[in-house]
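Dear H.,

Thanks for agreeing to be a second pair of eyes. The structure we're designing against is below in token form, covering all 313 positions.
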């Protein structure tokens, strides 16, 4: 099967062996990309979560790699939106820098984002600032004609209202609400706005999550890892479905690992999610929906290309 991971945080220091500012083990970034390629990941979109990390992501896409073809997003995550105000030349300067990056490196940038609202982590950025700079990023999408990579956590109707009631939806053609963990009703409202729904390990924790995944229209479904976060754990409702995956595939999607304290070059790091794990997400989603995984993988490939790589269809 072939995959496109629509969201992996490859700029996270964990992928260089650094955890909370401390070196825990050697840099194994190249091996991570090789494992992704071996698992069928042909394209990978690096998530830009602020200006600096968007610049780093774009730089990474220009390096030669033995792994998947790399692309990136450009934008500012809701928890980082205070950076607009603290930027040396102010919010207009921050916006201009994002726009310049997205315009100058257009061949490797496939979306505006990660942007949206996150009310689970208001300690990082208050609601009013999140809302203000979420709306501004619709202008980036309108000017670049890029789709949007969207984030929504526990925002009641605020996220939907900004998309719909404030008439921002017309400013971009396509968008995906990534790492979706919302209710069935919320999913249906977003699909009515012609948005895609991105599923990863965090989207598969509870039985309620799985019930929602069953109902996502097939032509609105995408998958991702959100690595190094959102791994699938034994406590998740989805974990039992992995028993149905044959050993050869499990070895690709969940390679042998050790704790970071006992790091061994060539092995994965326990509890550090990697893009190679996208096959686990696919198998769980296929099992929950009672569909053939190979057929579903191809449908998701088509969905993803239609938004981010339309010239390849």
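And this is the sequence the design step returned. I haven't edited it by hand at all.
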């Amino acid at each position: 099967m072939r995959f496109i991971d629509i969201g992996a945080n490859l700029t996270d220091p964990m992928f260089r062996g650094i955890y909370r500012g401390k070196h825990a083990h050697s840099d194994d970034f190249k091996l991570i990309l090789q494992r992704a390629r071996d698992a069928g990941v042909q394209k990978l979109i690096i998530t830009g979560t602020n200006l600096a990390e968007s610049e780093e992501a774009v730089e990474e896409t220009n390096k030669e790699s033995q792994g998947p073809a790399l692309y990136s997003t450009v934008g500012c995550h809701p928890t980082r939106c205070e950076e607009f105000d603290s930027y040396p030349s102010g919010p207009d300067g921050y916006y201009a820098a994002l726009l310049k990056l997205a315009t100058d490196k257009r061949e490797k940038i496939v979306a505006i984002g990660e942007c949206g609202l996150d009310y689970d982590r208001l300690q990082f950025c208050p609601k009013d600032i999140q809302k203000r700079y979420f709306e501004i990023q619709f202008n980036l999408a309108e000017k670049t004609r890029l789709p949007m990579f969207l984030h929504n956590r526990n925002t009641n109707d605020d996220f939907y209202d900004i998309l719909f009631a404030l008439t921002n939806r017309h400013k971009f053609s396509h968008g995906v609400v990534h790492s979706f963990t919302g209710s069935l009703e919320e999913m249906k409202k977003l699909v009515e706005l012609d948005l895609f729904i991105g599923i990863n390990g965090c989207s598969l924790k509870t039985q309620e999550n799985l019930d929602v995944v069953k109902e996502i229209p097939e032509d609105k479904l995408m998958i991702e890892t959100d690595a190094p976060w959102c791994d699938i754990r034994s406590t998740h409702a989805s974990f039992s479905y992995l028993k149905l995956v044959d050993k050869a595939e499990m070895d690709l999607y969940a390679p042998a690992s050790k704790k970071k304290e006992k790091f061994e070059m060539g092995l994965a790091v326990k509890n550090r999610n990697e893009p190679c794990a996208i096959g686990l997400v696919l198998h769980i989603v296929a099992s929950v929906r009672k569909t053939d995984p190979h057929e579903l993988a191809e449908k998701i490939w088509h969905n993803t290309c239609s938004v981010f790589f339309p010239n390849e269809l």
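Two observations from my side: The radius of gyration is 18 Å. Residues 3-307 form a domain with the TIM Barrel fold (CATH 3.20.20.140).

Warmly,
E.
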